[in-house]
Each structure stands twice: as C-alpha cells, then as structure tokens.
Amino acid sequence: MNLFNKILNILFPPKCVFCRKRLPDEGVCDDCAGKLPYRQSPLIKDKISFVDECYSPLYYEGNVRRAILRYKFAGLAGYSREFAKILHSCVNTHLSGKFDIVTWVPVSKRRLKKRGYDQSGLIAHELGRLLDMTPQKLLVKARDVPPQSKQPTQQKRITNIFGAFKPVDADLSGKSVLIVDDIATTGSTLSECARVLKTAGADKVYAVILAKTQLSGKLKK
After folding, report:
1. In 10 A of CB 186, how many CB atoms?
2. Which of 34, 140, 167, 211 has the fewest other C-beta atoms within 10 Å?
3. Pick from 132, 134, 196: nearest CA to 169
4. Domain with 156 in it: what CATH number?
5. How many domains does the chain have?
6. Hey, which bits of 67-113 come out as E strands?
C-alpha cells in the first residue's frame, strides 16, 4: 500500500458495505457475509412477464436496504464493486452460459444529472468485469415517470412505466440478454425493459437483481 492510500485509510477508514463496521480493506465483514438476508431456493427465482428467468439473491431489508439507499442517495458509488460480487455468484450458479450481452435498467437523464451516476449501470460494469464481458447500453429512459414506489397498485405501476424505455439502435436478432438492476418490488419496470428488448429482436431476456422486496398488503418501497 502506497503512502497516499495509507493516508486515505487513516482519514477515511474502510468500512463494511452493509453494517459500516471498520475493516482492514474495503468489502463485507464476516458477520454480514454470513447473516445477510439471502433468498433461498426456490424463492430466489422470480416470475416476471417477458423475462425468461430472473434471480435476486437478497431481500431488500435491514442492512441491505440501508446499504442500497446509501449507494443511491449518499454518493457511495464504490459499493457497486461489492454488490457486483454478490450478483456474480448468483449468475454463475443460475445463468452461466445463457446470455450473450449484459445490459442494465437505465435511469433518466434528469436522475443521472442529479445523482451523478447510473447505479445499475455501475453494478453492470463491475459485473461485466468479473464475467470478462463489456456491458452494452441497450436501453434509454426516454420518459421521466413518477417513482414506481409511489404507485399504489400493480396495475398503476404497469401503466406508469409503459413506454418509458426505448431501445438503442443495436442488432439483437437471436441474442440473449442479461439485464442488471438494483431493486425490484413487483418487477413491472424490469418487465417493461424486457418487453422492449424482445420487441427489438432479443430472443431471450434474463435478469439478475441485487435485492427484492417482500410484499405484504400495500406495495412497499
């Protein structure tokens, strides 16, 4: 470790992505590695319209929820590396060899300008590095819509997101695509992305999502 990195570690000591415990290096502490709310089979697999197979390894709760909120709203873009490692394990277990292209669910231009980065895009690029693949931007969010988390019913979520995404000019004929995203509740956003990709020629669309909410009663954020 060079002097500059040593000084950085003194001023900004590495912490666990999930519980914020101090660590010798960036990453996930042993406690969190063993106690995160992992989804167990068969619940790890989700059924989403237009998506051939979808997997999300974690529940969006507790320290996972807090970590994702810090990642999205507190500028902690470096979390993408640890999130990608979790997704990499999931992909290797369930989707290895099934896809030709990696892409992601994009944010709108307004959200990108405000946040400074596309959170799912960062995770996709870190995942691509682990897979030795270069992700491709296949979708743009052409219409800024109200947050899906504010829609009170599944039908309103579907209506709200319909037409929000447009395909980038790319030849997807006969291709299998893996979409990366950070959070899913009902899967309506992911379904719309998959619908657009298949309309653009994709043969198969797979998905991997870092965390899935547990629904009970009304939709939760």
Report:
1. 19
2. 34
3. 196
4. 3.40.50
5. 1
6. 101-104
